[in-house]
Amino acid sequence: MFPFSLETLDDQIQETKENVKDLDNRVTETEKDVDRIDKTVTEQGQDIQNVKNEVNEQGQRLDELEEVVDETVEKVEEIDHKVRRPFY
Q1: How far apart (Å, rounded) are the C-alpha atoms in residues 12 and 3?
Q2: What is the distance between the alpha carbons of residues 71 and 67, in angstroms, rounded to a whole number?
Q3: Cα 77 to chain center, whole Å?
Q4: Which of 4, 14, 32, 34 could be stapled to 8 by a disulfide with Cβ–Cβ 3.0 to 4.6 Å?
Q5: pLDDT (0 to 100) of residue 4
Q6: Measured between alpha carbons, how far is 56 from 51 in angstroms, rounded to an integer?
């Protein structure tokens, strides 16, 4: 005969079913967690792209400001030369 009874086998089957159900629940929760993480990562990726865009815009503004400053310096130097030239 078998080294175990049908009752023991039934108990083991029930325990296995419970374990499978528990694992299924854990997998389902893990899938939900992964979905939440994926959503968060996507949002953070969009935030990072927005920051990059803003940094690029600030860089462009700085470049424009540098041009304005250079032009202003030239004009100030022209005025300074006119004011400082000797009168004959």
Answers
A1: 14
A2: 6
A3: 47
A4: 4
A5: 72
A6: 9
